[in-house]
Fold this sequence. Notes:
With 642 residues, this protein is of the alpha/beta class. Helix content is 52%, strand content 10%. A five-stranded parallel β-sheet has the order 9-10-11-8-12, sandwiched between helices. The chain has a three-stranded antiparallel β-sheet with strand order 3-5-4.
Amino acid sequence: MRFRILGPLRVQPGGTPIRISAHKQRTMVAMLLAHAGRTVPIRSLVAEVWDERPPRSAVANLHTYAMQLRHLLSAADPRARDRLVTSDGGYLLLVEPPELDLFLFEGLVTYARRAHARRDLRGAEDAYGRALGIWRGSPAEDVPLGPALRNVVAHLTDRYLTTVEEHVDVQLALGSHRAAVDRLRDLTRRHPLRERLHGQLMVALCRCGDVAGALEAFAAARLALADELGLDPGAELRGLHRAILNGDADPARTGTLSAVGGVATAGGHATSGGDPTSGSDASSRGDGGRRLPSEPSAFVGRQAEFGRAHDVLHRSAPPGTGARVVALHGTGGTGKSALALRLAHSLAGRYADGRLYVDLRGSSPGGSPLRPADVLGGFLRALGVPADEVPVTAAEAAAAYRSLLAGRRILVILDNAADAAQVTPLLPAGDGCAALITSRTMPATVDAVPVAVGMLGEADAVRLLALLAGEARVAAEPGAAADVARWCGYHPLALHIAGTRLASRPGRSLRAFGERLRDRRRRLDALQVAGLSVRSCFRVSYDLLAARAGTAAARAFRLLGVLDAPEVGIARAAALLGVDPGRAEAALDELADCRLVEPAAGARFRMHDLVRLVAAELSAAHDPPEERARAVRRAGPPVEGL
């Protein structure tokens, strides 16, 4: 018999795989294989197959699926019928270690690690290569996944990536630097948040003599982390960068890089379970309960915001008042995540039982928001619950979560939240706990202290450029640095991109870069690198607007980009859109809810310069030229108060 779950699901008693066409039956088989050798309770199978929405006939349907599976097995091989065993309250699939690809993979990885430990690099490379060769795609990629299988797939995906990183270590130690570069370029594109992969690429490029390429790889890593998490690279990656800048042609002479992140922690103690990942791309991972990311190094300003949030989270709550909750909200790319991590690290002593962190992916490019049920599973594993004991249903998981937090002092960081429905089940209830939420919009129904995070002041913006591009360069061209900050609109993500681009081109003057930013037609193109951009940051908000509020609000956003004015009143917006003032005000309110405009004095609304450039691009792409021209004629020149 052969069973495969590392790719499309396969059950093969003989030479031809069994065809399991029913989706729910495939889910049942995948659950049995994921728990091979153990009985899977009926209630767990019901919750998985119907994703917590079972019909009344669910148990009877499972019995039918089991009977059909036995029939399929016996038709292929009469001896295989007894593989599926009915036990008390569940089903057990009998699988021997050599028969399941997952068991074979784990065995080869164990052998490879032992060979590496005894310095048998050739043996380790061969074993790693054979282990990775077993994979034929994403785990259970053709199976409809319920909550338990999503956790299994996340864990297996992380195991795969960790094994790839270990294999690359061996390749680097053997001197296969060029082969490693080719492989790592693809891997870092597909998994831009795996810092270890970026570090390995930098080392491999240096050993190939491509120092400029190594610096560009660091710039790409920095921008990926800033765009997705609002963070700077961790200490190890920054150390590699410094070594390269100092002229070290081999910045990792040991031939290996230690793992970066990927360990779940609670109270500072490592637990088992790995770093859950959703899908095959770590950029779409659900980091439920993983280690708190490192504190950002390039951090400036925010004294007022930090002070207000810190006061709320640090003070003791009167008995019975529940957990303290702070919501950092603001336009995309303003550094809410960086501020949240700064706060979380500063409060380590206040929350002595630990900190739980998750990127909820509420407004991340190309990803779907995480489901609360999946996050709860990650949190429970981080709090010490064995993976096979995590409740399957969301209600049971929430109850277990609340029970474990009771009487503890834990800070929960819910980063990049989509809405109140996503964060409410994850909020702690006990007086000793607290929560820190970051979101583009303020979760209206959450009882939280709101702290708005906006643009930087000019002095802080220039200081951020100095930290990223080099203090000596900024000091040598103070006027040009101020111009760069102004053309970036004092927007933190734009400043990060500008500073990173300047750092990767040490011979370029700030004045020359500022001249490029001055040109409105080239500004958005200049503020991007390695697929990361200010443009994509605001496009996410536009896509959310279009999905939530419909075409009318999306059209309003685009046409506002046609106006060459930072502010607009309701009357002029109504003329621009060709609608009555009530509908115009409703559209502007929708844009404000998505943080694409900000309310200003006198019933006016302000659009950031970079946002307006994105709106103008979208209008040029979607609105006919004659419609844009009519809108501008209707709006006319700006009039005070309109």
